[in-house]
Amino acid sequence: MTTLVTLLVIAAAYLIGSIPFGYLLARFWKGIDIRKYGSGNIGATNVWRTLGKGPGMVVLALDLLKGVTAVLLAKQLENTDIAVLGAALAVMAGHSWPLWLGFKGGKIIATGAGAVLAIAPLPLLLAFLVWVTTVALTRYVSLGSILGAISLPLWMMVFQYHKTTLIFSVLVAAFAVWKHSSNIKRLLNGTEFKIGQKKS
């Protein structure tokens, strides 16, 4: 029964992650397919760039909530490392490869942050401070996301989290960097979008 509950929790987490809030909000707000604008991503950054700060913040909050909800559900129904960390990875996978959009989704940062917040709030807070500092200094959201993600395992080690949670954080960091590969290319050639930059 425990194995079945764990599998159901992970499946539910994937479906929660698959809810494409950025896509849905853009459809209802402006009647557009957000995938055809800006970076083509359904996440909060592209919604912010395309539709403005308000819609972007709404999507950010909802995507964050997906991660929190999936992990809290796992803790409530089957509070084991496999269920909780599996749900965290599954909700991120759902956001990145949503069932409802042909498995083409976002870059996991907000949803991943929500999941980590429910597991290790202090390391997440410090990773967020890395993000804030980087974005404030460079105006590159993507660079802040990459560096914040990379810092997460370091904070896990500082606070001596369990080995399985540390491994989980390494996977999250690697996943986040990989999902930002196109951003890394644009950062290197100087074409990455900055906060405050006018839309072309």
Automatic annotation (TrEMBL):
GO terms for cellular component: plasma membrane. Its main location: membrane. Pathway: Lipid metabolism; phospholipid metabolism. InterPro entries: G3P_acylTferase_PlsY (IPR003811). It is found in: Cell membrane. Its EC number is 2.3.1.275. Pfam families: G3P_acyltransf. The chain crosses the membrane at residues 6-26, 82-102, 108-130, 137-155, 161-178. It is a multi-pass membrane protein. Keywords: Cell membrane, Lipid biosynthesis, Lipid metabolism, Membrane, Phospholipid biosynthesis, Phospholipid metabolism, Transferase, Transmembrane, Transmembrane helix. GO terms for molecular function: acyl-phosphate glycerol-3-phosphate acyltransferase activity. Belongs to the PlsY family. Catalyzes the transfer of an acyl group from acyl-phosphate (acyl-PO(4)) to glycerol-3-phosphate (G3P) to form lysophosphatidic acid (LPA). This enzyme utilizes acyl-phosphate as fatty acyl donor, but not acyl-CoA or acyl-ACP. HAMAP family: PlsY. Probably interacts with PlsX. This is Glycerol-3-phosphate acyltransferase. The gene is plsY.
